[in-house]
Amino acid sequence: MGLFPKEEKFFDLFEELADKIEVGSRFFLEMTEKHDYSEANINKLKVIEHEADVITHTTYEKMHKTFLTPIDREDIYALVNKMDSILDMIEATAVRIYLYKVKKPDDEIIKQAKILNQAVIKLKSIVHALRDMKNAKMILDGCVEINTLENAGDVALRTIIADLFVKEKDAVELIKWKEIFERIEESIDMCEDVSNILEGIVLKHA
Q1: Does 194 map to a domain?
Q2: Which residue numbers in the chain have pLDDT < 70?
């Protein structure tokens, strides 16, 4: 099969949303590498997250106004909803780091942010491949790679939390960092959720 039939604008919106998530993920990685969770950076990330929300709601509106959609409506909704949730969680994590005023930066967060960014980059590539089912194998292979990254994220989180309980003697700081680390892992989990949705779409249409 070649292109999906009917309305192509949906794929433009999927790609715009994937691009925006990648921008947000990359910026969050830069924040962690520089340990710069300033109000200015938080506000910049909020702007990126809002722009993603606009794309998401535009997709919903178009879905309700379009008689023939290129993929099932429930798949469109599930895809953009879960994609948008990735950036929501990234932004929520950064806000908590800012609000909690943690006493010292933790370099372990960089490891997680790098895994997250790798997953988002791979996700972006397979979302851009979705409009042509000639790319089915590439998309499915990408889904496997995201699953591998999610597993790496799980391993990293277990190690980080174990070390945190050994090294951090301040109970309040421990609670703050534990929540932050777990929220980043949730973002990585959401990338896998999106890849599972994409895998289902491809298997349905290829």
Answers
A1: yes
A2: 1-8
